[in-house]
Design goal:
The protein is mainly α and 115 residues long. It has one domain. It is built from 5 helices and no strands.
């Protein structure tokens, strides 16, 4: 399994969009709110608990496709991440890192000026 750091680096390169994945945005906000407040223990707990739900409700396919594209482009760790997903699905560091990246997108939107 990838380390959390390597999974985070890879997830940031996958070009996934929270709105295009078709996942439940209120469910994703369960991760985004503690992330926004800087509460790392609560963020970690929310990420661990919500990733399987988000994965099952539709994140799995776009995540796999993004990882396959990354592998085809030779992105570091993409092949390893795909093997992890095959073996353990949502209970992998890459799945959790992807959820965190998507939650960061919600945080950025929440903090954006309303102009």
């Amino acid at each position: 399994m990838l380390t959390a750091k390597r999974a985070a680096d890879l997830a940031a390169k996958l070009d996934l969009d929270a709105y295009e994945t078709g996942i439940c945005l209120p469910c994703l906000s369960i991760v985004a709110f503690p992330l926004d407040s800087g509460d790392e223990p609560k963020t970690r707990g929310a990420t661990i608990s919500m990733t399987p739900h988000l994965w099952e409700e539709g994140l799995e396919l776009p995540a796999r496709l993004a990882l396959e594209r990354a592998r085809a482009l030779g992105v570091k760790d993409a092949e390893h991440a795909l093997a992890d997903v095959e073996r353990a699905g949502a209970r992998t560091t890459i799945a959790r890192a992807i959820v965190r990246v998507l939650a960061l997108q919600l945080v950025a939107e929440m903090r954006a000026p309303l102009n």
